[in-house]
Specification:
Length: 390
Amino acid sequence: GDKTPLEVADIPNMDRIAREGRLGTAVTVPDMLPSGTDVAMLAVMGYEPARYYCGRAPLEAASMNVELSPGDVAFRCNLVTAGEVMDDYSAGHISTEEAAKLLEAVAAEIDLPYVEIYPGVSYRHLMVIRGAGGDHDGIDLEALLATRCIPPHDIAGQRLDGYLPQGPAADFLNEMMEKSKAVLAGHEVNRKRVAAGKAPATMIWLWGQGPSPTLPTFAELFGISGGVVSAVNVVFGIAAIAGLEIIKVPGATGYFDTNYEGKVSAALDALSRHDLALLHVEATDEAGHMGDPGLKVRAIEDFDRRVVGPMLAGLSGLGPVRVMVCPDHATPLAVRGHVHDDIPYAIWGDGIPASGAAGFFEEEARRLTGSPLPGHKLMVELLSAERSGK
C-alpha cells in the first residue's frame, strides 16, 4: 500500500513515545561521508562526523583492543560469498569459529610480515597494515587511504565489476582479495558448509580503511558517564574511544536471533552505575540489506515489543528519566544498502512536552520538523535539561 515498514509495523511503544514526546527528523550522515553505522553512530553519540570521522575499521580496532600506531592503516575484512556477483555480504552469517579457521588460512597465504588479520565476530573481521607510513613495495599511508573501497553490504546482488578497490593501492588490495579465493575454495570449512546447504565464504572483502582515531571522551563533551550495549564492534569501538563502558551480552548476535531480553536487562543494570545507557540493535539493518519486507517489519516489531516496551517498564521506578528512540541510518528495502536519508527520532520523558504526533514514522516526523536536526545535536537534545541542572 505504498507505506514504509515503520507505518505497517505494529509498534505501540514507539508510537507512545512519539505521541507523548517530541518527534522530529535528523541527518546523521553528512553528504560528504559514506552512509553507515560508523558515521551515523558517531552522530547519535554526540560527535560531529565531519570533524571526527576516521574510517570504520579503526573504530572496530579499538573495540577489539587492537592498537594502531601512527602510520598503521586498519581495514574491515569481511568474509563474503561472491563470484561475479556479491551473493552474500555475510557468507551466510558464518559462525565465528568457522571464520577464525578460514582467516588463519588466508593470513598464511598472504604471508606479508606487515599485514595482520584479526578474527572478529561472524563475517566481520579486521586487517591491519603496519607501518604504512614507511614504504612497503610502493604501498604507503596516503595510497591506502586514497583508495576507494566499497562496503559489501551496499552492493548486495550486484556484479563486482566497478566495485572492487580503485585508486593508488588498488592492485595491492585486489591481489590480497584474489589470493584469498584460492585458499578458501578448497578449505575443509567451506566443504562442510556446502555439504550442509550453507553459503561458503569465497573471498575476503576489504573496505572501511582508516588511521588511528582520536576523540574527546563522552565525559569531556557532556559531563556524564554512560554504558553501551551492542553486538557490533564498530559501536563498541566508538564507545571504547569515548570512554564509555562496553557491555557485552551473551547471545547478542547482531541478527534476528539476538538476545533482546538480555540486552534490555544489561541496559537497565547500566543505569545503576551510569547516567546514560545506549542500547543498539542491528536486526532491522540486516533485514534492509536482505531486501525482505516481512523480515524488516518483524525486526521492527521485535524491537518495539522486546526492547522498547520492557525498557519503559523497567524505567518506571527509577525516577525522572528520558528516552530517545531512533535509527542510526536508513537501509531501504528497495536499495538493500545504506542511504543518506534523514531519520525519524523521538524523545520522551521528564521535561519533554508532547508534539502531537500521530505515531512513530517518517512522514509524520517530517511533518512536525521545520528542518532536520544535525545528527550530533541529538544527544544535546536528550541531555539538555540535565545539563542545565533541571
